[in-house]
Design a protein that fits this description.
- The chain has about 400 residues and is of the alpha/beta class.
- It folds into 2 domains: about 140 residues, Lyase, Ornithine Decarboxylase, Chain A, domain 1; about 240 residues, TIM Barrel, CATH 3.20.20.
- About 30% of the residues lie in helices and about 25% in strands.
- The strands form 2 sheets. Strands 1, 11, 12, 13, 14, 15, 16, 17 and 18 form a 9-stranded mixed beta sheet that branches. An 8-stranded parallel barrel has the order 2-3-4-5-6-8-9-10, surrounded by 7 helices.
- Strand 5, helix 6 and strand 6 form a beta-alpha-beta unit.
- Bound molecules: pyridoxal-5'-phosphate (PLP).
- Pyridoxal-5'-phosphate binds next to helix 10.
Length: about 400
């Protein structure tokens, strides 16, 4: 019995032997199933699904989404470039983020971005100025901060008063009216995104109600708003969470929109890719400890930082000879005490076994780093009987690409 979605052990063993470890393995069938689920849930309503690239920007994944007709949500010019490289349309892309640089706004406008989601008054001025400079009109949504507690980890909550994101609701009305007077701005709607790994629909509903109340006030005063961007954030099951289904989530959003003639934009990241990816690592050694043993593997926070950063829990399974389980911490080789993949686990492992880290398709490879001078891992996409390397393992020379010495 497999406790989390993953390819068969035999396949993972073969891939690890062939391509080495640590290794990302993505399953195209899971990606396709998620895409279909999201498309089905919003079918029949005016909508656009904009995949949040920061969850996993691997070109092969973006290409698959672009071919399926999804749009994108990006937070930097680099992500926009990735979308274009993978065949995605800038016109179907939303640009979010609190600190867009002038040159990023210029590049997004030149590419024909679908929407710049503006997060502050100074940013609105900057967008207006850059658009004027380029003799263009910028399609803009105002991202509001609805002041709700998303009930998620504080590092990934974005919709409460103290978070840096969005425009406070009580300032957004006057800013929207002001935006409508600016020659470089075409204001088309409001946007809201309250956080990530949401497992409860109540905060989503509260955020949307508040945003729609503002929307209604603005349209009543004569603004023509055609879109509502409900953001992303739908959670997945890592352990025992019970996130709402995509269908329930979509039904809630559609119910909130009601009879309003609005295009609904959603920006799922994690929910589209988390379950489609595993990280395969090899056990280097098992080290006895005072409280528990340490299972030291060849992947760590440079590959998957979520356990270290958010205290996140990922399912782990060992592929190897069975033995009597012992209590242990599964750790990486990096020189940080926080470099842990799994705390307080009970499993059996010995040197040479493979450890499969589940539900690792989101915020894994996209948050990976060169810390401790570790070349980035390779990635393979499984597609039916085909297993294609979609990212080559970095070489040692890649570590100092661009550096110079006297
Ligand atoms: C991160 C982010 C998303 C995606 O969040 P997930 O939890 O991965 O769905 C969507 N929209 C915005 C503005 C974001 O910052």
């Amino acid at each position: 019995m497999q406790s989390f979605p993953r390819p068969p052990d035999k396949v993972l063993q073969r891939l690890a032997a062939r391509h080495g470890t640590p290794l990302w393995v993505y399953d195209a069938a899971v990606l396709d199933a998620r895409i279909a689920e999201w498309q089905r849930a919003f079918d029949g309503s005016d909508h656009r699904i904009c995949y949040a690239v920061k969850a996993n920007g691997t070109l092969a994944i973006l290409q698959r989404f672009a071919r399926a007709g999804l749009g994108f949500d990006v937070v930097s010019c680099g992500e926009l470039a990735r979308v274009e490289r993978a065949g995605g349309a800038p016109g179907d892309t939303v640009f979010s983020g609190v600190g867009k640089r002038a040159d990023e706004i210029d590049a997004a406008l030149a590419a024909g971005i679908g929407s710049l989601n503006c997060e502050s008054a100074p940013e609105l001025e900057l967008i207006n100025a850059r658009a004027g400079n380029a003799r263009l009109t910028a399609p803009v949504a105002l991202r509001v901060n609805p002041g709700v507690d998303a009930g998620t980890h504080r590092h990934i909550a974005t919709g409460d008063h103290d978070d840096k994101f969005g425009i406070p609701l009580d300032e957004a009305a006057s800013l929207a009216r002001y935006a409508a007077t600016l020659p470089g701005i075409a204001l088309h709607g409001l946007a809201v995104h309250i956080g990530s790994q949401l497992t409860d629909l109540a905060p989503v509903s509260a955020a949307l109600e508040r945003t729609l109340a503002l929307h209604d006030a603005l349209t009543a005063s004569g603004l023509r708003l055609t879109q509502l961007d409900a953001g992303g954030g739908l959670g997945v099951r890592y352990r025992d969470e019970t996130p709402p289904s995509v269908a329930d989530y979509a039904a809630l959003l559609r119910r909130c929109i009601g009879e309003r003639k609005l295009r609904l934009v959603v920006e799922p990241g994690r929910a589209l890719v988390a379950e489609a990816g595993v990280l395969v690592a090899r056990v280097e050694l098992v080290k006895p400890g005072a409280q528990h043993a340490f299972v030291v593997v060849d992947a760590g926070m440079s590959e998957l930082i979520r356990p270290a950063l958010y205290d996140a829990w990922h399912p782990l399974e060992v592929i190897g000879m069975p033995g009597e389980a012992f209590s242990c911490e599964v750790v990486g080789p990096l020189c940080e005490s926080g470099d842990v993949l799994g705390r307080a686990r009970t499993l059996y492992a010995e040197a040479g076994d493979l450890v499969v880290v589940g539900c690792a398709g989101a915020y894994g490879s996209s948050m990976s780093s060169h810390y401790n001078a570790r070349p980035r891992a390779a990635a393979v996409m499984l597609d039916g009987n085909d297993a294609r390397v979609v990212r080559k393992r970095e070489t040692i020379a890649d570590l100092w690409r661009g550096e110079t010495m006297s």
